[in-house]
Amino acid sequence: MLLETIDRGNIEKLVRAFYAKVLEDDLLSRYFLIALGDDLNNDKWYEHLHTLDNFWLSLLTGEGRYMGDPLMPHMFLGGLNEAHFERWLLLFRETLDELFIPSIAIKIHGRAKALSTRFISDLELDEDE
């Protein structure tokens, strides 16, 4: 049964399911494996996933406890390009479609797409420039 609400528990399901996919992805996994390791249950991943839970909850409902700038951790990752964000968005959309009813998946995807576009621009990764 697909999820019909955006709440902390469902955001946690989304974040964990998504990052499990990321760790299996040939393009994206290396960034996370280097920084956090391959076990989503380790302390580094626990902290990262908790931060992401709060980020998405704040972004989508205004209820999260995220304090910070989501762009900053990405500023120092070498080798990022627009293709990385396109893959991130594709995997995120796949995960949304697996977990949420279409109206909620579309809403969350819209926020993720806007975030991806902002990151590409702010990190000056636009291929057209």
Describe the structure.
The chain is an all-alpha fold. The protein has one domain (8-122): Globins (Globin-like, Orthogonal Bundle), CATH 1.10.490. It has 6 helices and no strands. The radius of gyration is 14 Å and the shape is globular. The chain has helices at residues 8-24, 29-36, 43-61, 72-75, 82-99, 102-122. Helix 1 crosses helix 3 and helix 5 runs antiparallel to helix 6. The model has no long low-confidence stretch (mean pLDDT 91).
* Helix share bin: 55-70%
CATH topology: Globin-like
Shape: globular
Q: What's the CATH H-level homologous superfamily? A: Globins
The domain tally reads: 1
Low-confidence stretches: none
Question: How are the secondary structure elements laid out?
Answer:
Blueprint lengths: L7 H17 L4 H8 L6 H19 L10 H4 L6 H18 L2 H21 L7
Helix pairs in contact: 1-3, 1-5, 5-6
Brief account:
The protein is mainly α.
Tag the structure with descriptive keywords.
129 residues, mainly alpha, Globin-like, 67% helix
